[in-house]
Amino acid sequence: MFALLAGWILHPAFPVFGAPPVFDKPGYIYHPGVKKCAACHPKDQKGYSVAHPVDALCYRCHLRKDTKKYVHGPLGSGECTSCHDPHGSPNRALAVASPVALCPTCHDQSSSKRHMKQSRGKGCVACHDPHSSERNFLLK
């Protein structure tokens, strides 16, 4: 997903460090306004850093998703970018990977593996809300 070059993480839109971004990758969906870097990366910040917590930046444009009784851990801690790429992605909702690949990166305990096998490939988000829910285990 991201390339590593001499300690720098390069976003897929940047093919070579220092080169202008490429915004026409086939099958890649870009976040609206991604070409307006300064909207999220203030010029007075060093490099391409953003203000923390990241969710404060996201909530400038996006509706809050953490209003229900049970909140998914990364969202509750303000780390939207644990699951979403703010620049763009080939996945739905700008996710960093498909739910089938993304969810097990954190939910890898034996009970999750057993549960995924029993669900017969339905996919996590068929039953679970990836943001928040009024029901335990983020059930829809």
Topology:
Elements: E1 3-5, E2 8-10, E3 29-30, H1 54-58, E4 70-71, H2 73-76, E5 88-89, H3 99-102, H4 110-118, E6 132-133
Antiparallel strand pairs: 1-2, 3-5, 4-6
Beta-strand portion reads 5-15%
Instruction: Please state the CA-atom Rg, rounded to the nearest Å.
Output: 17 Å
H/E series:
EEEHEHEHHE
Overall helicity: 10-25%
Uncertain stretches: 1-10
Oligomer: single chain
Number of beta strands: 6
| N-C termini distance | 29 Å
Shape: globular
Record the strand order, biggest sheet: 1-2
Compute the average pLDDT. Answer: 79
Count of helices?
4
Please describe the biggest sheet, giving its number of strands, its sense, and whether it closes into a barrel: 2 strands, antiparallel
Q: What is the total number of structural domains?
A: 1
Q: Structural class given helices, strands, pairing?
A: alpha+beta
What does the model show?
By secondary structure, this protein is of the alpha+beta class. Helix content is 16%, strand content 10%. The chain contains 4 helices and 6 strands; from the N terminus they run βββαβαβααβ. The protein has helices at residues 54-58, 73-76, 99-102, 110-118, and strands at residues 3-5, 8-10, 29-30, 70-71, 88-89, 132-133. The relative contact order is 0.13. Residues 1-10 have low confidence and may be disordered.
Write out key terms for the chains shown.
140 residues, alpha+beta, two-stranded antiparallel sheet, two-stranded antiparallel ribbon, 4 helices, 6 strands, 10% strand, disordered N terminus
